[in-house]
Write a structure and sequence with these properties.
CATH class of the largest domain: Alpha Beta
Shape: elongated
CATH architecture of the largest domain: 2-Layer Sandwich
Number of strands: 11
Helix content: 25-40%
Order of helices and strands: EEEHEEHEHEEHEEHE
Strand content: 35-45%
Distance between the termini: 23 Å
Number of helices: 5
Amino acid sequence: MPLDTLAAPASHMLEIKHSRFVAHAAPVEHEDGALAFLRDVHVADATHNCWAWRVGDQYRSSDDGEPAGTAGRPILAAIDGQGFDRIAVVVVRWYGGVKLGAGGLVRAYGGCAAECLRTATRRPLIELARLTLRAPFDALGSVHTAFAALHVRKLSETFDARGAVLDIELPRTDVADLKTRLRDATRDRVEFAPAADDAP
């Protein structure tokens, strides 16, 4: 199933039996980004800062002192249950003096995270491909015309005696279309190779 990330950070507050729960969610691109977000929204004087994040096959969660399995895993379940990827969610709790029990904690943390994500603005995730291409100088006009038509992002461009070498990024679904356009527009004089970090 296609996954979404968040278009922008989002927050949601919930009060249950005098305990206050505040969920903060944000899009992240990698583990370092998730950890930076966790540090940014950590509230030192809160009772607990529980969290979860997912980036593709990588994920982590923390109960931050709550009974095992009552906070981090329900937050992660909210992320997965709503079809999100590349996001981090922190639920901050201020204890209000009334114990909620394990089931109550699961519902509170999971529910606060889920409602935060349900009301947030979603952005579809598009799988990107990186390619390196070599083009002779007299084909560069056609190359840039094709880039504009397919929303190709140019990452770098270098020149040598044979022409230009360009590193580009574009939606994976558009790769075949780009190759066809450039083959037709340049009489097959553009050479493609996967970028180093995209090679199998």
